[in-house]
Please model this.
Amino acid sequence: MESPDIKAIVVTPVKDAIENTLETIRAVRASNTRVKHIIYNDFSSAATKEILEQQKVPFGYELIHLEDLTNHPSPNYRRVLQEAQKRALANNLPLIIVESDVIVKADTIELLLDFYRQHTKAGLIGAVTVDEYGQINFPYLRFKDQYVGTGSIETKKSLSFCCTLISLEFLRRYDFIHLNESKDWFDTFISYQATDMGLKNYLLYNVPVWHKPHGSRPWKQLKYTNPVKYYLLKFLKRRDKI
Model:
């Protein structure tokens, strides 16, 4: 069991983009709330792996190299979720995903946990993503028409895992071992699974986090700059399966 001072398990999957990753780690480290931060290195380059090893003591995170657990090629989000779920349940703590292209504020985790304590039927609780100017950006652009200023909304739309709390209630009721191994990403499926089980998903507009879209997967920028090439690569290389 983790120390009683630990209030959540925070996980960050990493695929290179080391400068963005270190910014994310630094921001989590500076949080007002004490958490257990686990970095899952998903077959990054040798240079990234070395830096992550060098920084784990100064920043105080636990580092897991997925190459030690599986030979399945990156992305390995399914394996990350399965391992993280075990940690969260073993410690009776909620799970918070903070992806490596997201910068949280000092009170982000505290606010997510406060909302969670007040909403006992929550499944997923997402922090809205914004750009460097504070404007809502991908992947929550589709929520702009529901913007309620500084409040929150309950939603049946899928949430992203950019910065999202997964409740203990949901973790206890749905075993991630059942996630489809042919898929790459699971935020849409898990969002709908939570509501199908009668839980409620929320998006918090008053908890914005800075998101640099696809910072860890640069090829996905093609979706906006060269969509024809993006969808060709997606089809030929079977990438980005949701």
